[in-house]
Amino acid sequence: MKSHPPIQFPSQFLWGAATSAYQIEGAHDVDGRAPSIWDSFAKTPGRVVNGDNGDIACDSYRRVEEDVALLKQMGARAYRFSIAWPRVMPHGRGEVNPLGIAYYKRLVSLLRDAGIAPMATLYHWDLPQALHDEGGWMNRRTAQDFAAFAAVMFDALGESVPFWFTVNEPWCASFLSHAIGEHAPGEKDLNRAVTVAHHLLLGHGLAMTEFRKRKLGGQIGMAPNVDWREPYSQDPEDIAACERGLDWFNRWFIDPIYHGRYPAAMAARYAELGIRAPIEDGDMATISQHPDMLGINYYTGSFAKAPANPLPLRPGDSPQRQMDALRNLDTVNVPGFAKTHIDWPIFPEGFTKVLTWLRDEYGNPPVFITENGACDNTQVGHDGQVHDALRVEYMHRHVIALHRAIRSGCDIRGYMAWSLLDNFEWAYGYGKRFGLIHVDFGTQQRTPKDSFHWYSQLIANNGCAA
Length: 466
What we know:
- This protein is of the alpha/beta class.
- It has one domain (about 5-465): TIM Barrel (Alpha-Beta Barrel), CATH 3.20.20.
- Helix content is about 40%, strand content about 15%.
- The mean pLDDT is about 95.
């Protein structure tokens, strides 16, 4: 008999899990796949911890039936995956690889047969190396190439995919990758990062145009990552500092979609550094086509306050110092805050706050939580199980925070846990584990963790204890 816990979600709420192609698929040189910028970056000495790379990863390209069976065992109602651009179009444009298309058709078919709604992300950072060699996202043409790739996938998968996301975490693909240099291609130039951010948004808009042309019955949107900076006090300076943080991290990518412009105050601060987004006529209209939904990736947040000694905006400073000056806020590390094993504060209150902020800022758009999860490096114990108590507590607290947002009127349609599998965690390599399922990367053995079983019960009951 099914129980009815006190924290109960709407009857049509979609529970599921998420992954991305480079992090799980492996098979890097199989069936016509060409290199991406992450293949090149990961094989550059010093870029990734332990020199790890995604050549094999979780070998999900070969183990797709096993992974879909695990999703079904968990009770997932949706699965968010990404499509590897260089697997489908090895040169980034032109020739389409039929074996790449066949793999994603097979994945979608397996999901649908299992009663799981496919949720496809078109760009999760694996730009074909061939396009990067021509300038990558610095080159405006890449946005058009992305739209052509999107069109190929819309034609191939059509309405068998009910949910599409264009670009995953554009902040990471622009600033973390081109200004901070921690992700591929590893550049450190703030001006380039702002250009890349604009071209990513333009690519999103052009892909939306291709989707609308086809009059497909599914839904489409973008999936930015957001965080939340809670003012340390009600001092107006602390509040203003947190607003700058929202401008820099959240609004820079969401305002163009819903308001057709960049946040004016932050654009003015960039201009003081001589940096402007390369906007051409018609760009903002293309970017601001009304999406059907918004994907939200949330992991952490913090308290923040105005700095005692604010940094001046100076064109000659390093990109990191310029970004610190643009935000002009200090993070406050409050003693006693628990952290995950990647050292991120556990701040579920920020989850509720950022969702209600989105409700108020953008007219309460339909939202899917496309990523939320915790790094918990607990290994398989002597009993053959993985007792990842930190992840269970993190998920429990964030699910309650999500429920609070829904009760507050936020239009939230589903939640995708990050991640289904332990995987290649970008610059951290294989040392940071986010999976509901433990992967032994030597044998590829999958072991569902305590969090997998907890989440399975949550899905079965469509809710949990308070």
